[in-house]
Amino acid sequence: MGNFQDLKNTLSYIHSELNRIETMAGTLSTVERDHFNKLTNFDHRELMDIAVEEQSASRQLGTIKHMCLAMAQKIEGIKNAIDRGELEESTQHDQVH
Amino acid sequence: MIKFIEKLIRSAINETVDKSISRAIRDQYTENLFEMVPATSKVGPTNLMEIAMRANQGTPISRPLGSPIHFSPWEKILFNPCHLFRFPTPENVGIRTSITIGHRARKPLTISIPIMIAAMSFGGALSKKTKIALAKGATAVGTATNSGEAGLLEEERDSAHLFIGQYNRGGWMNTPDKYKQLDAIEIQLGQGAQGSAPQRTTAKNIGAEFRDVFGLHKGEEALIRSRLPGVNSKEDFIRLVRRLREETGVPVGLKIAATHHLEKELEIAVEAEVDFVTLDGAEGGTHGGSPTLQDDVGLPTLFAITRATEFFTRKGVIRDINLIATGGLVTPGQMLKAIALGADGVYIGTAALMALVSEQMVKAVPFEPPTSLVVYTGKMTDQLDIDQASLNLVRYLNACVQEMEQVAITLGKTALTDITKSDLCTIDPFLAKATGLQLGYVASENQNRFFEETEPLLYNDGTFSESQRGDQERLH
């Protein structure tokens, strides 16, 4: 029982950190998109390439945000399974067999 | 002096053109050089040259980059912008461009843009430098590249952050030491430009590194069989999918050439619980293949997408099995239309290669084709600058996705994957009927009335419409 409480605490920690990363990725994605808009105001080849990189970084940060959301949902699912005692039952079942 | 030369040239040109025109008018048509104009128009310049090439070689000729025929009528489909009825997306809202492939897999594959680099093999198709440039470009924008039907090229694997490998009919990627290094496995049973026909690379075109990557002996040819070794029944295929999924945990998909047997093929894919299906339309490219396989075999990409989407929806697996479309998608508009019609993502091959060599093509032309910089057997592959090539690919992909985002904004959407059939209309009645898109000629509420009223006109070629057939039957 104690092990499951530890696991739940760890999952809660990961969940909260994922939410933090998700928020940071979302904010950074917006910042990168703003940079892209600003950099494209200059008619300069190298700045344009940096702008393209910023745009790409913005999209990839957007991807990280959604990956975090998906992982947070999975963790939420595991926590709910622990609350319902499903993991405990399956562990006992494994020990019997 | 210059004026005198100019006058002399003008006079010579005038004399020559006058004589040419006079001869073209006076000579018997059968002895007239002008006969080449209608003759070429009759067969087409491509067919004329290909007839001559076949006559010279005596074996199937190998045409690069796929069929020049535009099978899919993308230009007859348009997006529906919105203004008041539904508002466009504010410009400060970022459009989500990422997609996840293999929701059911233990290790799903998430890419930042819905465009991936298509399967083009090292050796069989492209040079090592080209493969590395493609991998670097894909990595920079957060998307995946594909091995093609090859062995595992270590440098490509290292350069690609997300790497899809083909479990192939040559057998070169089919051992655990190789496929366990992949981020997704695509079981390759066919391709748009070749169907499931066998292909061989002769030993004379195989260098030392090619042999190493493919595990070939000196003098041995590289053969892609028509069937996947070990898969001779539906059960064999299902077992293979389950084994690969169990062993690796990465998304396991099926790639086939689009065909009119599509639903029968997909039925087995659904039964095998693949994570994704890649459909390569008849427009699909290749490094080189017989014109007959390219022009006369398969199903257009557009209809492959709409039919597969309808089938997956009917089977209730539309959320479980990702659809990846490929074959002849060369503009961002076509790519986004493919997504709106039901594809989760697209592969691009020809367009990616063109973007890759774009600024460097001057190294080859006018005396060599630009492909000589990128294909394995090309004469100028050593001159390709990898960093410049990958930079051009990055710029191209960024431009494409940004154009797609612009469309999403005008449609009032916040994610590319939110764009659906309801955001499209068509200007072709048959396309409307076949795909379920609304016809742009008439208002939404008049769609049925239009088809009811024009039914007799659609059958004015002597055949009977349903209602006319009914009338005939009543008369007899």
Explain what the structure shows:
The complex is a heterodimer of chains A (97) and B (476). Chain A has 97 residues and is mainly α. Chain A has helices at 2-39, 45-83, 86-96. In chain A, helix 1 runs antiparallel to helix 2. The mean pLDDT of chain A is 87. In chain B, the strands form 4 sheets. An 8-stranded parallel β-sheet of chain B has the order 4-13-12-11-10-7-6-5. In chain B, strands 1-14-15 form a 3-stranded mixed β-sheet, covered by helices on one side. A two-stranded antiparallel sheet of chain B has the order 2-3. In chain B, helix 4 (128-141) packs parallel to helix 14 (386-411), helix 9 (262-271) packs across helix 11 and helix 12 (332-340) packs across helix 14. At the A-B interface, helix 1 and helix 2 of A face helix 14 of B.
Salient structural properties:
heterodimer; A: 97 residues; mainly alpha; 3 helices; 91% helix; B: 476 residues; alpha/beta; TIM Barrel; eight-stranded parallel sheet; three-stranded mixed sheet; 17 helices; 41% helix; globular
